[in-house]
Design goal:
single chain, alpha+beta, six-stranded mixed beta sheet, five-stranded antiparallel beta sheet, 26% helix
């Protein structure tokens, strides 16, 4: 049995984080180690903190690297230093609570990586009021027979509709096969209202791109050639990988913020742990000013009212996951 590498200490903004097994390989395809993962998150520090700031955060942990089982963890792992902050959430279906990580500084991110976290999945609301989202998420989820060219086409329609609404969208690759667009919204509504507004927007995109887009609820009923605009990512307790989060895929791909002008030519495979630090050093956080562009959901609520008056149904909310 190979000897484990000695622990190291990382200094992060006045915090000291002990990192055990820094040489453990987390990404067998590239050979990237736990220390490489730490270095990546340090390199994009302002970006990942901005994406996670004050949000309840689910962790996707790989204690032995990608070659072994992933753990989806809501509760903060045991042994956190006292400066790592949390937010208590209640899960009505189970009548349980969970104290989830609530990032307020980069040290918390690095400590989570020490605890084998690869992916960070924040809520679309903040600790101050977890029941009132301040982030509307547009998830372009390609079907089994889609390709990224279709994602790019639909993203162009999304940008067009957002422009007409006067909303500023912040796109990013999903780190998989899709694309996300985030819009900052006023935290005036509950998750159910935001999801309903997101569905109204998705239906408008579907009207404009019927050959590419579906809003069909059941996966089995969707045309596999169509892209699903997944409005359910706005439901309570539904999370997606944050901007700058590494994804648990062999090439160490990252959910990467991109400019709208880059979308027509971008390739998700270009944004990895290896390439993003230099990109971040050059252009900084493309989502840095998202809080300066807040959209009022009222027009989308009106669209939802219109659609339902015409007979469109809003499917029941998906069930929350266990606490």
């Amino acid at each position: 049995m190979a000897a484990t590498s000695p622990a190291i200490e990382i200094e992060v903004d006045g915090r000291t984080v002990r990192v055990s097994n820094p040489d453990r390989v987390y990404f067998p395809e590239t050979g990237a180690t736990k220390k490489d993962l730490v270095d990546y998150y340090l390199a994009v520090g302002p970006g990942i903190v901005n994406a996670l700031l004050e949000r309840p955060c689910m962790l996707h942990r790989f204690p032995k690297g990608l070659a072994e089982k992933k753990i989806h963890q809501k509760r903060l792992p045991a042994g956190a230093p006292p400066w790592v902050q949390t937010v208590e959430l209640h899960f009505p279906r189970w009548n349980r609570t969970a104290d989830e990580l609530c990032v307020t500084e980069l040290g918390s991110v690095i400590w989570a990586v020490q605890m084998s976290t690869v992916e960070f999945h924040p809520w679309n609301s903040r600790r101050e009021d977890p029941e009132k989202p301040d982030e509307w998420r547009i998830d372009l989820d390609p079907g089994p027979l889609s390709d990224f060219a279709q994602v790019r086409r639909v993203a162009g329609v999304v940008e067009e509709v957002l422009d007409e609404l006067g909303a500023v969208g912040y796109p990013k690759t999903s780190g998989g096969s899709g694309l996300h667009v985030y819009v900052r919204v006023r935290p005036d509504h509950g998750h159910q209202v935001v999801r309903r507004a997101a569905l109204a927007f998705a239906r408008e995109v579907e009207r404009r791109a019927p050959d590419d887009v579906t809003t069909t609820w059941w996966r089995k009923d969707r045309d596999p050639h169509h892209l699903f605009v997944d409005y359910n990512q706005n439901a309570r307790d539904h999370t997606i990988a944050a901007a700058y989060s590494v994804r648990g895929v062999p090439d160490g791909r990252v959910s990467a913020p991109v400019r709208w002008s880059e979308v027509p030519d971008c390739d998700p495979r270009d944004f990895t742990m290896a390439t993003m630090p230099a990109r971040f050093a050059e252009i900084g956080d493309l989502h840095a000013d998202i809080d300066d562009h807040v959209f009022d959901l009222a027009p989308l609520v009106e669209w939802a009212d219109r659609d339902e008056a015409a007979g469109a149904e809003t499917p029941d909310l998906p069930e929350e996951g266990p606490a």
